Model the fold of this input.
Amino acid sequence: MTHILAIDQGTTSSRAIVFDEKMIPCGSAQEEFPQHFPQSGWVEHDPADLWASTAATCRAAIEKCGNPRIDAIGITNQRETVVVWDRKTGKAVHNAIVWQDRRTAEFCRELEAAGHAEIITTRTGLLVDPYFSATKLKWILDNVDAPARAPRRAIWHSAPWTAG
Done:
């Protein structure tokens, strides 16, 4: 008997649904977690909350379905939310910066003013906007005690998008 676990780790909650061999849901669970707003326009999540709520909903959905063997897992998530882990400890170095967060808007304006928007869009297919992950990653590496964890962070200051 085949069972599929679907996981949706969303912006305000985590959800899990187990489908049986006929693709009929046989167990589901959902759990909200807190959002943090340290400043106006900033949105963060505690990565431990994301993991705990995801694991708890998966366990609960599987249990409600009678603890079947899971043959496949499908995952959807927040996509542009960024978490950086310390490779030695496995712990997050900062809260997750959520896709809605606007803290890097000024840096995005600087990139555009410096004429980098066209090359970024050409190379990535993306607009220069705080929604996307790269500027959030830069903010974490520049503002959290991360230099020892990410010794190559200087590439951000040498405009890596212009390299051949």
Notes: The two ends are 51 Å apart (CA to CA). Residues 1-78 form a domain with the Nucleotidyltransferase; domain 5 fold (CATH 3.30.420.40). The first strand starts at residue 4 and ends at 9. The chain has two domains: 1-78, 103-164.
